[in-house]
Amino acid sequence: MRVYLVVIDESPEAVIALRFAARRAVKTGGGVEILTLLPTVDFVQWGGVQATIEEEARLHAEALVAGAAGTLMEESGLRPSITLKQGDGPKIIREMIAENPDIAALVLGAAATGAPGPLVSHFAGTDAGALPIPLMIIPGSLDRDAIDRLS
């Protein structure tokens, strides 16, 4: 099955990328894998404080992904696979692609204004020719109608 890997965060462009991926998945009989990257917490001298910070970050990420997955199921009927990982984003994405041969494309959203995010910059720059799958960068300026038309 053709799977679209989408990285979700709290940005508006992530929602746009997810909608695009879901619409493509429906049209191609595929699926969606949602990845949320947990922030790496700097070392805190007191282990209990660090554990609390990490747990709060995980709970926040889980709520974010649950909301995105709910919207996806409501709008497209697709039940996405969900992955939460902590660490270096590009490395995690490359590992996921290597481990899952069904992943057919990496779908990222680009901010409507300002510089692109770190993942877009990395995969469209440093790793542009190294990915074994297509990279789809969805402009953050697209509205729902434009996404539906293009997907």
Automatic annotation (TrEMBL):
Domain of life according to the entry: Bacteria
Coiled-coil spans in chain: none
UniProt-listed InterPro entries: UspA
Pfam families: Usp (PF00582)
Positions of the UspA domain: 5-121
Protein name, entry field: Universal stress protein
Species name: Sphingomonas alpina
